[in-house]
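Quick sanity check, Formate dehydrogenase subunit gamma:
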Amino acid sequence: MHNAALDPYAKPAPTVETIESIVGEYLHLEGPLLPILHALQESFGHIPEAAIPVIAQMLNIGRTEVHGVVTFYHDFREAPAGRHVIKLCQAEACQAVGAEAIGARALAKLGVDWHGTTPDGAVTVEPVYCLGLCACGPAALVDGKVVGRVDATKIDAILTEANA
């Protein structure tokens, strides 16, 4: 079982005070919403639901506007990601060389859907639409590291390492 107290990837639990402190650091900026959201996600691993009204109040904008930005950008998460995030390219160039099969294989092996996280919190799998490695597809981004020419053997190795 995963022990969060010993996990170097564990993020602190969000509190209103912490959220207000983070938001306050960016109030001096023109157009601070995106930097605030990035800072919150960096701090907590996602955008906590409790942050939406705090941001709205501190920026004097509507909650729906904040929520709309969070849900529009695919990199913002409304729930924490796993300790490892595997993004698999699903763009046309990668599809032409087998990306759909690689994605299906990864999802089946992990027992999750796209954007899903394994029950033990080890791995989150997300689709992306172009990593700029079109000549080396199918491509993946594994914990921020680009991997090209992902085939069945390589995705199996990636999943085994992420679940270790």
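Posting the structure with no commentary besides this: The chain is about 40% helix and 10% strand.
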